[in-house]
Fold these 2 entries.
Entry 1:
Amino acid sequence: MASFVKDLVRVGFSKLNIIIFGVGTSIATARLLTPDENGIIAALLVYPSLFMVLGSMGIRQSTTYFVGKEIYSLERIKQAVTQIWLITSLISMVVCFLLFHYLSKSIPDFSLVLVSVLCIPFSLHNTYCAGIFLGKNEIKAFNKINWIPNFVTFLTTFILLYFFDFEVMGAMLAYLFGHMAIFIALWIRRDNLLPNTFQIDKEVISKMLSLGLIYAFALLIVNLNYKIDVVLLENLSTPYELGIYAKGSSIVQYLWQIPMLFSTIVFARSATSKDGLAFSKKVAQLLRLSILMVGFVALVLMLLSKQVILLLFGEAFLPSVIVMQILLPGVVLLTVFKVMNMDLAGKGKPYISLKSMWIPLILNVVCNLYFIPLYGSKGAAISSLISYSAASFFFLYFYSKETNIPIREIIGYKKSDFEPILAIQKKLTQKIKR
């Protein structure tokens, strides 16, 4: 418990920074750019973000699994991951560019697409390094990879938009600089992927890809559930509606940083856990705590949604209020998936998320095709609410079957559930006194 609490405090610091700098960047783009320009930014980020998931080939997760289980030496794993990184970066950039060229209708400038696509290799490198840190349970190093890009993005966004008036290009350059910053820092510290030899290790590569591809496909399906509304909104509506939706959804999605606070540690420890059932019961306990915390914050945001949007983004984004209110219940429900999926992923069972997410994804697409032409950004929010709710119930059912823990036991609260909170409070009190 003591080591868990220590890791929890460290990850908590990282997640807090992610929220602060992420919201800060969102405020800067809202205050210094128009809703239409914010819509263009959302369209520019959607394909690269998907390929940062698909292009990673699930290697971060499989790296964590192989390092944590000590199946191969660290040097052999780094050697294989480096070669995978070089190939996947090139393929992802080319395919992403082609998607922009043939599917996107709101991008005004080729140079914007180029900057957007250039983010991919830096992001993939950082993602692969994060898998190594997680496998070694080096939570502190893993945290830095997560929050430093957000800080650099926020700082450069403000500078480029406020002082230099670079508009959309400034926002995209800031996003690129954020990924480059941690890439450069890792190379300076020699924590990068560069191995001692580039000799191809077919055994390790094939084993990592065989597991990683399952992770990658599962992550793609999951992320399509989050991103497909942006893709369809861009093609079926206007940049203005996309900008309104992007700001409304950006706030509520930061609620997921609360369960991710737990799930990062869950994934790292699940990969090294010896007693799978006992650990899954602990994960169920963390889920119950996460739902309480996310639910409380969501209720506050629901009651103060208008004031929050006006305070952060200004009157131009007032229609984002209804988007935010529609999405909040679905975000709370999807906490089930956000926490518990990391347990199964750490056990090398990403296929459970595939079983849980493919029907909600189809539902999401069908609903978006119907609701977006009628209601614009509100239609996309309604579709996401339906998809998130369905995904939560499907995953809870499959998780219960996989772990042999009854659903009633997973969601039923106990007095002992609150022991981690009391332990954290005690630790913080001791630190304050010292």
Entry 2:
Amino acid sequence: MDNSAYYEVVGKTVEQLNNIMNVSLSDRMKDAVKKALGRSVRTKDPLFWHAGMLMVGLVSALECLEKVDDAKEIRDEIVASLEGHVNLWIRKTGGKAGFVDDALAGFALVRAYEITGNEKFREAADAVKTYIGNAGRDAEGAILYNSGRSGNIFVDGIGQVSMFMAACGDDSFDSNKQLRLFYKYGMDEESGLCYHGYELKKADNDDRIAADRNDSSKNGYVSDKKGILCWGRAFGWLIMGASVNAALGKSDEESFSQFKSLCESALKYQRADGGWSWQLQALDGHIDLSATGMIAYALGYAVNNDVFGEADLPDKIRAALKKAEECIYAHSDKGIVLDALSSCDDFAVHYQTYGNNPWGQGAALAALSVIR
């Protein structure tokens, strides 16, 4: 493989993290229009998942290049970028996390501390741990995405917090429980694929949901599943969380079996060009490089940590990863990763706009780093 292509992606990811909070006047005006239309706009939180995905990509590259003799300069650039971003976060927030989405950056910070020993990364990760430890939960204990505003459980949040909980080494956190609850309430029973999220309803108060969805009562609750079936990034969040938990020995037998099923679904729905679509089953739909990066990262992370006992599944995954690597480079231009689906405004609100987005850039770099 041409190392220069990989280093170009690393360099552009560093550049994007360094500038993610620098918003031009024209972009601020666009955000004002989007806000007036009720659409989502960029956040003022430096640890939000947009930056968090770039950080995961850079930490993955740091780990990949840790023992590469001629990569010291780029390693130093990565560490400087991560530390500079933490400093920015401290200046803007006083060192306090404020969103469930900060858990993705928290995962990257834990890994950055383990690699570098830089106490600043540990202290930032501890702030995320404090927030997640106090985050609102539903009646079964799943972490709410917007506590106080709704009872919705988003797979985005479950994937991120399960990654962080598994990595941070706090025995009071049960990362596997978060995944088990989503497997219980957020999956399509016929296909085994995930919805974007769900909300618990008391069975005796909302029997209509059970009747309409042929859903049985589970511990007195029925699941009001939300969003389209298997949005690509939703699947990406779930398989990333499951992969990290399996790799770090946090999965029980049932959850590990679910993770293997996710891997098999990923292989089943991989496109001929090596990527994954914006909706997993839509093989003729538009490719999404953010979903592609997330899924490939999860598969590569698991294989690299030798989580599978049987010989055939890792071999199949390695073949799939080779195709995914070729796909990512085919959709990149001078280190800029293209064709990532735009942000999602709500359940089943997916504007079909594709381009270079931080979540695509970071996920693609994370994938390339575990594939190398």
